[in-house]
Amino acid sequence: MGSMKNRNTVSGKSLCSQQMEGMILKGIGGFYYVECGDKVYECRARGVLRGGGARSARITPLAGDRCLISVHPDGLASVDSILERRNFLLRPPLANLDNLFIVVSLCQPQPNALIVDRFISLAEYKEIEPVIVITKLDLTEDNGFGDIYRKAGFTVIDADYSSESRDFLDEIRGIMKNKISAFAGNTGAGKSTLLNALCPGLNRETGETSKKLGRGRHTTRETELFSLDFGGKIADTPGFSSFDGEFAEFVYKDELADTFREFADYAPNCRFTGCSHTCEKGCEVLAAVQRGEISQSRHDSYVSLYNEVKDIKEWEKKR
Q: Model confidence over 59-93: pLDDT tens digits?
C-alpha cells in the first residue's frame, strides 16, 4: 500500500502529512477507525467527502469502504476521500461486501422461503454472493429445503453438529478467506452458535430465544468489521440479526427477474418482450415452473416480491 506526503509550513518549518490507503472498520460518534497495514487510525472525516468513479457525489463513509487518509504531524488523522465502491447496503450500513451467509434452521423457527429469497434477491442485485447454511439438521428430518437452492445454483452448506466431521466449518472458512463476509439469520436459527464455532475469538452472545416472541437478544448497534485469523473480515451487522422483513432497499420490477438466477435460461425465450413472468401466456419461466425445472417455491417468492414493487413509479425510486 503506497503512501504520499503533503507538505505544510508552520512557523517557517516544513512539516509532512503522510497519506495512506486503508479500510474503514467502523464509524462511531463522528470518528472513523481505519486499518492501514497493521495499524488502526482514529480519523475525522475531512469536509464534504466525495466518492471515486465517474459519478463523484457526496458520500457517507461506511464500514468496508476503501479510503485515503492523511496522518498529520500532530498525530491527528483524517479521512480525505472514499475510493470507488463495488457495492453498498443502506441497512446495515456496509460497503464492499463479498459474501452473505444466510443461516436457515429447519425447525424452531421454521424456514420462511419468502424471506430467504428476499435476502438472496437483494444480494444478487448488489453483486454479493449468497450462501445458504442449513442448521438444526439433528432436530428434524431433512425436508429438502436446501435442495431448492442447490437446484437454483446456490452453494448450500449443511451445518450438522451431530456428525463427528466438522468439514462444513472448513468449507465456510474457505469461502470467507480474504473476503468481507456477513451473516444473516432469524433469531434462533443458530447464527451465533455457528459464528462461535467458526471464529472462537469473536465470542458472540447467543442469548436465549423468547419462545413467546420468537426473538432473541442482540446488543450491538454499530456495524463493525473484525479480522479473521484465517484471513478476511467478518461484519458484525445488527441489521441482519433477524428476518423482520423491513428493508430500506427494494429491487424494482424491471430488475427483479435478473436476481433469480435460474430464470436466465428461460426468460429470453418468452413470447412477449417485457414479460413479467407472473401470469402471461407464452412465458417460458412459467412453463419451466410447470415442468418442475424451476422450483414453485422460488417462483412464488418472485411473484410476491414483484407484487410489492410493481406499482412503484420511476420518479418514486430511490437509489
A: 889 999 999 999 988 878 999 999 999 999 988 88
d(CA 298, CA 295): 5
- Alpha-carbon span 16 to 70, nearest angstrom: 10
Q: How far apart are CA 113 and CA 124, in angstroms?
A: 16
Q: Which helix (H) or strand (E) holds 132?
A: strand 129-135
What average pLDDT is seen over the chain? 83
Give the Cα separation of 243 and 184 in Å (integer).
8
pLDDT of 49:
64
Report whether 78 contacts 45 (CB < 8 A): yes
Is the confidence at residue 212, as pLDDT, over 50? no
What are the phi and psi torsion angles at 81 (to 5°)? -160, 155
Q: Which residues of 218-254 are buried (b: 16+ CB within 10 A; e: fewer)?
A: beeeebbbeebeeebbbbbbebbbbbeeeeeebbbbe
Work out the burial of residue 3: count CB atoms within 10 Å of its CB; fewer than 13 is exposed, 13-18 middle, 19 or more buried. Answer: middle
Q: Which of 116, 105, 154, 124 is nearest to 301 (CA)?
A: 116
C-alpha angle 278-284-290 in degrees, rounded to nearest 5: 75
Q: How far apart are CA 301 and CA 299, in angstroms?
A: 5
Q: How far apart are CA 302 and CA 304, in angstroms?
A: 5
Strand partners, 194: none
pLDDT at 72: 85
Are the C-beta atoms of residues 99 and 173 closer than 8 Å to each other? no
CA 168, distance to chain mean position in Å, is 20
The whole-angstrom separation of Cα 190 and Cα 133 is 10
Copy the grid coordinates of residue 35: 486499518
